[in-house]
């Protein structure tokens, strides 16, 4: 789940922002000033920052954000009541990625934040590999050696998730949560069924799977290829 920090001093605006961003499936931390703002940004995926704040202005805070090596590339959307072009330019030159002029619609705000989150994705690797198994996240294709595997969407998601976390054990509940999503109503047997299907796609020998290991009493894990051979 993406985490968005909102800094806005007007309570009604702040709560409206929180409501709509949360409804869009984002985790929100809302602050009324920039005090503690840098700490709140630790691990955040985007910042929605009001320009006019009591104390330090949004622009001043943005300068500090951009001076922090860990936050240099954090997507920032500035909110401004100022429509003056010179000020918008100043915000963008200071390092805002986008801006919205008040008043704005909630739908537009959510769309802009989503666009920022999408644009910041290319840093994550687009292909995963574990020995002869390779996964292209962009085209949603998995291959064993050169052979393309004919997977359902969910089988692909499960295989990609486990390959992303090679060597780590996940319980069935965790896999349901991470791959199927918290609102999925099916039970843990769904995970077992998908693992069985994946093993068949991967050509795994019954009782001696190379990749998808059953860890008794705990769940499943993708074995590192060095260990699987
Ligand atoms: Ca304000």
Automatic annotation (TrEMBL):
Response regulatory domain mapped to chain residues: 3-117
The keyword NADP is annotated on this UniProt entry: no
UniProt entry keywords in alphabetical sequence: DNA-binding, Phosphoprotein, Transcription, Transcription regulation
Any one Gene Ontology cellular component term annotated for this protein: cytosol
4-aspartylphosphate: modified positions: 50
SUPFAM superfamilies (alphabetical): C-terminal effector domain of the bipartite response regulators, CheY-like
Any one GO molecular-function label of the UniProt entry: transcription cis-regulatory region binding
Protein name as annotated: Transcriptional regulator
Source species of the chain: Deinococcus radiopugnans
């Amino acid at each position: 789940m993406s985490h968005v920090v909102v800094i806005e001093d007007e309570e009604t605006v702040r709560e409206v922002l929180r409501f709509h961003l949360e409804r869009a499936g984002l985790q929100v931390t809302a602050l009324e000033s920039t005090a503690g703002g840098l700490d709140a940004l630790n691990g955040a995926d985007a910042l929605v920052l009001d320009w006019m704040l009591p104390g330090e202005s949004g622009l001043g805070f943005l300068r500090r954000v951009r001076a922090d090596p860990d936050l240099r590339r954090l997507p920032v959307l500035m909110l401004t009541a100022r429509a003056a072009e010179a000020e918008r330019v100043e915000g963008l030159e200071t390092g805002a990625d986008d801006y919205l002029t008040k008043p704005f619609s909630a739908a537009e705000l959510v769309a802009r934040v989503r666009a920022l989150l999408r644009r910041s994705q290319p840093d994550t690797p687009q292909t995963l590999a574990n020995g002869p198994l390779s996964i292209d996240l962009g085209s949603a294709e998995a291959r064993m050696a050169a052979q393309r595997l004919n997977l359902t969407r969910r089988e692909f998601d499960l295989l990609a998730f486990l390959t992303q976390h090679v060597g780590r054990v996940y319980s069935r509940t965790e896999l349901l949560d991470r791959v199927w999503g918290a609102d999925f109503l099916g039970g843990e047997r769904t995970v077992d069924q998908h693992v069985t299907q994946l093993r068949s796609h991967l050509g795994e020998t019954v009782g001696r799977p190379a990749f998808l290991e059953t860890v008794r009493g705990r769940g499943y894990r993708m074995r590192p290829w060095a260990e699987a051979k």
